[in-house]
Amino acid sequence: MKQESKTSLLLGAAFLMATSAIGPGFLTQTTHFTEQLAASFGFVILASIIIDMGAQLNIWRIIAIAERPAQDIANSLLPGLGYFLAFLIVAGGLAFNIGNIAGAGLGTNVLFGVSPELGAFLSGIVAVAIFLVREAGKVMDRFAQIAGFIMIGLTIYVMFSAKPPVAEAALRTVAPDTIDFLAIITLVGGTVGGYITFAGGHRLLDAGVKGKESLRYVNQSSISAIGIASIMRIFLFLAALGVVAAGTTLNPDNPPASVFQAAAGNIGYKIFGVIMWAAAVTSVVGAAYTSVSFIRTFSKTIEKYHKSFIVGFIVVSTLVFVSVGKPVKILILVGSLNGLILPIALGVMLLAAHKSRIVGNYKHPLWMTVFGGLIVIAMAYMGGVSLIEGIPKLF
Fold this sequence. Notes:
Layout: H1 3-21, H2 24-37, H3 41-66, H4 70-77, H5 81-112, H6 116-132, H7 136-162, H8 166-174, H9 181-192, H10 196-206, H11 215-245, H12 255-293, H13 300-304, H14 306-324, H15 328-352, H16 356-359, H17 366-390
């Protein structure tokens, strides 16, 4: 593989994962918790980045070494475990995709004044079209890259317009006034929870980036993916903090739109429409691709017609949105529940990393095993605390 095409592929996988994470839920969760925690939300972002890095590095490396997708690794570890993991991932992916489709409808509503339902329908067509072209993988990679750069660039503009208290944010990032477990698990769930952390790993595997000789590239792409998502999170947090610090009350029905409009007026509101649409459609693409990648090895029929299953996944998500809708609280809830999938998925992958029948003579670094194990314990604990204490507060 030429160096130029390999670089493009690695960036494509990184942006697929990052833009899968940056969806309507990502925008809503970030602004919601910034309003709640103010500058102390910086600590939540820092904690989530550390957890994200440890989780994703472990998972992507193990997929590359095993040279097979996560569900097959899990089934090799314990027969039936892969089907259980696939069920969790696909169910979470479908739930998120309903919100993603809804976000696309909201973005077109802001930009063109069409109904969210019509906007969602048209956006669904765009997502479907990506998978119907001959070079679907390359188109998906390039679409994710372009949309990612646009989202980050526009958010930087709005952040500067909001004039955030950067010094206060920096201080509270290392010395927070309060620590919120629900916020941490929701951010981790929205960045590497559920299907999201597997999006880039399975994309690299699909493109033939696997084996020991590819670990350097896998590490590079994995860290880049978390970096891209984290940059977007930080800029969005600072934009929201600037608006909140100025005394503006965010609209609970659409917190991120309030931030962009308060920071940059009607131009900001239109920028929000572009970002919401781009974030939503790239997340639709990532969720559909990754969710189907978890079932395509179970059946020769699914493998042969996997593009049709991806299209069907998008169509079902669109139809459910038209029937049900997307409350802000449900997006936050789904993010936190997706975070509960992470300790299960990561725990399975760490056990597999030490089974020679799965990874051969590969020796997984001790520090990565320990780091990953601590993340499993921490996420399971925070998830339990959030379920018992935090989530009921949303309702």
